[in-house]
Amino acid sequence: MARIIVVTSGKGGVGKTTTSAAIAMGLAKRGHKTAVIDFDVGLRNLDLIMGCERRVVYDFINVINGEASLNQALIKDKNCPQLHILAASQTRDKDALSQEGVGKVLEDLSKDFKYIVCDSPAGIERGAHLAMYFADDAFVVTNPEVSSVRDSDRMLGILSSKSRRAEENKEPIKEYLLLTRYSPERVKLGEMLSVDDVQEILSLHLLGVIPESKSVLNASNSGMPVILDEKSDAGQAYADIVARYLGENKPHRFIEDKKGFFGKLFGGK
Amino acid sequence: MSKDAQKTPYSPPALEFKSSTFSVPVLVISSNDLIIIQQQLEAKIKLAPEFFKNSPLVLDVQELNKQNIEADVVAILEVVRKLGLLPIGIRGGNPEQNEKALGLGIPLHSIHTSTTTVDAKKTATPTPEPETKDLLQTGTTLITQPIRSGQRIYAAGDLIIVSQVSAGTEILAEGNIHVYGTLRGRALAGVQGNTEARIFCSDLQAELISIAGNYKISEDLNQEVRGKLIQIYLENRALVIKEI
Ligand SMILES: Nc1ncnc2c1ncn2[C@@H]1O[C@H](COP(=O)(O)OP(=O)(O)O)[C@@H](O)[C@H]1O
Ligand SMILES: [Mg+2]
Question: N or C of chain A: less Cβ packing under 10 Å?
């Protein structure tokens, strides 16, 4: 059985697609067979970030409608054979996603894959709901600003009550906080919320902090998930996140230039 | 192998009763003119169509009966249904109305449950309520998960929350409210007029606090009580916030 991860936020432009691409690649590079699905029907861009936009023949909705098999639609990543991409349709209507159809695709993928990463669209409409409905884990992507934190809070409320796990009275979805586009300088200037501000409001397990970084733009321009840029701060931050998700103990980084600060915050010695 | 399920001694239970508290809008009717009811209800629904679509609803005819206005509950229920709402109860009806409601399979509710007016704009995108546990049948509602932005909780008795209450939430109780965590939302105790109701919390950063309609907004709250165990009660119709 695969573990289904939804990358969600409520708000757009916070880094969900960047994160989905990076962690899917990170999990695959560690040898886990991973599929990443773009739920953003009508606005597909996961394939651009993954650099496979010229190889899309069939998409997610073709599979749901039975117009193509999963094998036909899954695109094998050019850098990592363990990673497969299921692109969104640019031309279809959002309503083409049905709960039944999505459930069937995830069930079929589960037989073959270890992790399934669902890149959620923004908002709390149908696509976002379906992306989270079947999830086992939720990566809640949040920027250090009040409106983004509030949206994530709202999303967490929906996650805890409108998922398959909630409806079937199963163990709830595991929720993790990913704080992205973090800039310690701007926090110092009081222009952004700090890690502990956000933690205090959301009280959620922090999986990692991704710094605001030029490497993200460079990576998306070259169609390579930023985690492959091992020298970059954002790439390393995502690699840490994958490691922590898999149970490794990695100290948090990129929160401040000075070390020791974080230990003080989280009770470390 | 036994074919008779009843004789199988170890068959796992196929069902279980659980008690939950839900907040359901109550439609208080004060006219028996079906056309006016329909027009005004339509106008309200237009304010928040998503909220009202297939929303459960309790019909309250107490006002009508107080003023001895004859009303055909069957016709009113029909109007309500026609506009896409799903009546799940009636209250304040006379025996004849109650019988008619029951005849339609609509349960009767007693009058002392809830009557806060639902602010359609605020609840326009309602977030589903977290599951609540009613400990002693309308006695105490216990919630152990965080209340997240957009959620609204109504308790007919006391409300105990053993977690945080986020900004952008509303928690209401006819009795006392206890929050063992940070309270950032709106907390309203004694919403049916109980002036003895109190609010207890371990970190007060609320947007609004109210007891029996006497309220304070966050601007008026003293920052010094933050992070301290406090109680809030009414004294001569004024809210008192005190450290415990
Ligand atoms: N850590 C980061 N540093 C700098 N820019 C980032 C970072 N994360 C995301 N971005 C940029 O923010 C924009 C939105 O990112 P994207 O992943 O598409 O968000 P979403 O999927 O949530 O809409 C993109 O232009 C992306 O390059
Ligand atoms: Mg996106």
Answer: C
